[in-house]
Amino acid sequence: MNKKQGMAALLCAVGVMGAGLPVSAEEAAASYELEEMVVTATRVRENADKVPASATVITAKDIEKINATTITDALKQIMGIFVDRPKGLADTANGIEMRGFGDADILVLYDGMPMNNAYDGGVNWTAIPVDDVERIEVVRGAASSLYGERAVGGVINIIPKEPGKNLKIRTSLIGGAHSTWRKSFTISQKPTEKFGYKVGFEQRSTAGFENKVASSTAKGSSSPTGTVGTGVVTSRKVNGAPRYLLGTPGKGAGRSTTYNAEISYDFDQERKVTYSYMHDKFRYWSGDARSYIKDSNGNPLFSGSVQLPTGKWLNFNESAFLDYYGRRETDVHSFRYRDEAHRIVFNAGVSHVKDSGYSTGKKFDGGTPGSDTKYPSKSYKVDFQKTWETAGKHTVVAGWDAQRDSMARTSTALDHWKDWDSVTAVYGVTGGKSDNFAAFVQDTYAADEHFSIYTGIRFDYYKKFDGYFDDRKNHAFKKYEDKSYTEWSPKLAFQYSPNHTASYYLSYGHSFTPPTLYKLYRTDNGYYAGGYIGNPDLEPETTDTFEIGVNKKFGSRTDVHLALFRSFTENLITAAAVPGTDNKHYVNNDKAVRTGMEAEVKHRFNDKWAGYVNYQWQLVKDDGGDRIYDYPKDILHAGLAYDHQKWSGYLDAEYVSTRNAPGSVSNVYLSCDSHTTLNAGLSYKFSKNWKAVFTVNNLLDREYYSWYKADGRNWYLGVQFNN
Question: In angstroms, rounded to a whole number, what is the distance separating the alpha carbons of residues 42 and 55?
């Protein structure tokens, strides 16, 4: 189906469109208390019922109710978002998916600063302090004409709390399964009419659970080479081939410690300047490795031989049971100036991943040799916008932004593999930079009180430069050619509200997405089998997105939302084999078509009980018409919420369909299975300021894999203080 046919299909669907939930979102640089206003979708404050977008707001109260440990916990119940973090707090590789796009194509803002790192566009979700969040604005769909790269699948805008006149203290202590703890403390105040401050601390830690396996897919040898044991477990790979399980690397543990601070100064009631700082230190590791293989005396073997069902011998050593020993340290500085009188907003800041990487070795003893890979990165960001509302029926917002990203990836040998400073040799260093300069303008024309037209355009100038690979092991150096691109990204949307209970919208947006520095320049030293080779010739992806939606209220108790969307991506970047080698690289050799629908119904039964159902169906295909199985086709949530006097609680059911290709084996390591989980929570406010909370996730103890093995039933109990 071509773009014109896709657009026609969307237009034909208008007649069956039902309704939608009133939306609320907020400007990247500003924080407003008015839930009935929306800003992120258009960068202009408007009535929530009258924006041409699909959006959801999550309040601090919502986050408290579900006892969220990280921001992704708060996003789990949101329509159309799939949270893919099976290892929980210790997860670093996975994040979220929205409308067939992953972390790198979803712009995440915290206090006005992008949280997508410069290395691969991923988000350090553990770095954002949960207790400091006032609200989270989720806007689904193309927003690149206003926000640029990464805003292809949507924007998630996280707005922190602001100091008030009175001294405010918030603290919590929550613990539960797997020795998991969340401790937090925040103090804030505006002691004078002009000066305000905030200081906070948050620590999250877990001993983890077994989510990986120690295994081999080798065919085996003709004879044993070590102590002979028994107990190997025969499983299968996703493709059906045998996988022989030896045990597990142990429990995946992690610890994140976050500090945040803010000072603000009000020149007057309409002009304000704010500086904020956030520092996060994250560590992850596995401990208590477990072997299924036993010697003749019943003792576990971590090195030896075991006979396979084929009669061959599998020879193994401690390295089969080792996992990564990893770290990440992040600083975010943000400066913000807001002038309400002149409708001016200015942001500047830096997001610096000072250290990120992992090491591993061949022995449990961390004092033995090993290797390390580290990939720090840095992003500088400046943006400015101004709004005019005096041009008759027109509201115009215009601005510019500039961003520089840089990264360096270093592979080293370590004398002690758990001591990252014990470097004995540098194998290779690869790195590069990119600049992006952009200007945008959007006009909102209110033809009358019912009908509005949104037209906007953004111009991007993108340059990749200073790319290199210093192969120190083989004494070779390669400098990559600099290259630049320009792109125009238009936006057109229509919004019609026949009355105060219904709102219809139709939109088109074009997105421009440069490749991440990781895909451009990452090169594994020595080009070992299965490693990656940088491809500095990658070109940006472009995406055209069409969307049609309707929001409607039925009486005062029911809100309904329905939307259809279709996106066409050119120059899709995918991993492919390097001809004639066992290596891989990223190439622009494909296209993608993303088609989907989303629907949500929220109903308040009375002043105590409320319920909701939301569902997203999506299908992602390449240009050959074959499904891309990285994204679930179906995501369904249904739940009940109770809130009365001192008690509140919720019950949420989630269904996610399989991401396994036809013929694949399910419920094995590295499969992505369909699953249905039930989650519940209860809280009791036993005084004006104190509240007890209790939550249970995966209540029915369902077992499934989302690449790694997901957690079983787990519970958390704690207390919260908020004056």
Answer: 11
Residue with tokens 């800041």: 349
Helix boundaries (H) for 76-113? none
Which of the 8 DSSP states describes residue 321?
G
Please say if the pLDDT value at position 527 is more than 60.
no
- What token pair was written down for 657? 């369909």
Among 206, 205, 163, which residue's Cα sits nearest to residue 184? 205
Q: How far is CA 342 from CA 37, 271, 339, 347, 397, in A?
A: 19, 9, 6, 16, 12
Q: How far is CA 571 from the centre of its chain?
A: 23
| Concatenated DSSP letters of 591-607 | EEEEEEEEEEEEEE-SS
pLDDT digits (tens, 9 = 90+) for 620-647: 999 889 999 999 999 999 999 999 999 9
pLDDT for residue 285: 96
Please answer whether residues 161 and 132 qualify as being in contact, where contact means their C-beta atoms are separated by less than 8 angstroms. Answer: yes
For the record, the structure tokens of 551 come out as 């929001």
Stretch 712-718: mean pLDDT:
95
| DSSP string for residues in 183-233 | EEEEEEE--SSSEEEEEEEEEEEE---B---EEE----BSS--S-EEB--E
Contact 337, 346 (CB under 8 A): yes
d(CA 174, CA 648): 17
Q: Give Cα separations from 252 to 180, 205, 256, 289, 373 (angstroms).
A: 12, 11, 14, 10, 19
| Distance spanning both ends of the chain, measured CA to CA | 57
Q: Is 392 exposed, middle or buried (0-12, 13-18, 19+ CB in 10 A)?
A: exposed
Are 303 and 291 in contact by the 8 Å Cβ rule? The answer is no
Specify the pTM: 0.90
Residues 6+ apart with CB under 8 A from 192: none
How confident is the model over 316-346, as pLDDT tens digits?
999 999 999 999 999 999 999 999 999 999 9
CB 576 within 8 A of CB 590: no
Q: Which two tokens stand for residue 579?
A: 């001809």
C-alpha dihedral sign at 299, 305, 306, 307: negative
575-604: per-residue pLDDT in tens? 988 888 888 999 998 899 999 999 999 999
* Contact between 615 and 636 (Cβ < 8 Å): yes
Q: Is residue 326 within 8 Å of residue 284, measured between CB atoms?
A: yes
Instruction: Name the strand (E) or helix (H) holding 517.
Output: helix 517-521
Q: Strand 483-499 vs strand 476-479: parallel, antiparallel, or unpaired?
A: unpaired
Neighbours of 476 (CB within 10 A): 10
Other CB atoms within 10 Å distance of the CB of residue 365: 11
Q: What percent of the chain has pLDDT over 70?
A: 92
Task: List the beta bridge partners of residue 505.
Answer: 495, 549
At 585 the three-state DSSP class reads strand
Question: What does the DSSP 8-state code read for residue 23?
Answer: P
φ, ψ of residue 393 in degrees (nearest 5): -90, 5
Residues 6+ apart with CB under 8 A from 299: none
Q: Are 545 and 142 in contact (CB under 8 A)?
A: yes
Query: How far, in Å, CA of 142 to CA of 198, rounded?
Result: 34
In the chain, the amino acid numbered 368 is T
Distance CA 206, CA 643 (A): 30
In angstroms, the CA 550 to CA 62 distance is: 25
Q: In sequence order, which residues have a C-beta less than 8 Å from that of residue 157 and are 6 or more positions away?
A: 25, 26, 27, 28, 40, 109, 136, 137, 138, 139
Type of residue found at 167:
L
In 3D, which of 596, 593, 672 has the Cα closest to residue 626? 593
Question: Is residue 455 a contact partner of residue 421, using CB atoms and an 8 Å limit?
Answer: no
Residue type, 384: F
What is the rounded CA–CA span in Å between residue 97 and residue 406? 25
